[in-house]
Amino acid sequence: MPESSPTARPWASPAATTMRAAVLSAPGIENLSVRDVPVPRPGPGQVRIRVMAFGLNRSEYHSVTGQAGGMSYPRVLGIEAVGVVDLDPDGAWPPGQQVATMMGGMGRRFDGGYAQYTVVPREQVIPFSSDLPWEVIGSVPETLQTAHGSLTTGLDLRPGQSLLVRGGTSALGLAAAALATEMGCRVYATSRRAEGCELLASRGITPLLDDGSVAPRVREAEPDGVHAALELVGVPTLRDTLAATAVHGTVCFSGMLSDSWTIPDFYPLDWIPNGVRLTTYAGEADDLPAEVLQRVLDRIESGDLDLLPVHSYPLPEIARAHEDMAAGRHVGKLVGLPWA
């Protein structure tokens, strides 16, 4: 049975004292390399996970390009991982329990998920049970956490409402659109490419080719504006997204695909239309309830939910994966497989 199969269940603690990990020694893609490092040992309140897959995120791209704060070097990257519990000194989690972990300083303040093993605080471990391939499981947790939190906490989206997703063919955009469509919402989503619009349409989403001004076309379909809008591109499109939103509607700023972090000379009375609400969302592991993760994995396994296209890379190809992410060569979620 292949090592990447969930049913292989590699539960035993490693006999080896070293593991393979992707380490960033300084900002710059040329400083990201796979090397042998010591297998980490869990301290009080920590759990060691044998990592079977990890999602790649824009956050790690920001780390590689030197845009992220709170970094120290050398650092094993990765703000999320999925795998099985390898060692919990306190016995709270049994060996072999399938788990996800994310955020909390992973990949920045302490070593993260781009490795064969990672050690994390026990409180950011989320259990699940699934027979899906690890690369599919690895595509879900952090993207789901942000999508679910943006739609619930950020937007308070209700069934039957209308939603605009700006940056609709990003992994987060596709996940948010899928969840909103499942709720019975009317979903509009943007892409800068015709092929992206075709993908959105194939998923029952109304596509909008993004030329920087989609508000007039949104209001052709929704004359009063959309009830909610999820801004994933960032500052360059935010003003137009606000203009597409109804009075008492909400725009949630959850992504920065443009890498534009701040608004120069921001004048709220000029930028924000009367009565439109602007908020943000950025969550942690405890913002993704275990039952939500389990429900989504079950629905993917049953074929009732198509969340994301997945593109997987073995650990030695992590630099190429980052180059592909930066260039936008793939639609969907990029996933690393440390044992491939």
UniProtKB/TrEMBL annotation:
Protein name: NADPH:quinone reductase
Matches recorded under InterPro entries: ADH-like_N, ER, GroES-like_sf, NAD(P)-bd_dom_sf
Organism: Actinomyces denticolens
Annotated PANTHER family: QUINONE OXIDOREDUCTASE PIG3, QUINONE OXIDOREDUCTASE PIG3-RELATED
Entry keyword NADP: yes
Stretches assigned to the Enoyl reductase (ER) domain: 28-336
Keyword list, A-Z: NADP, Oxidoreductase
SMART domains per record: PKS_ER
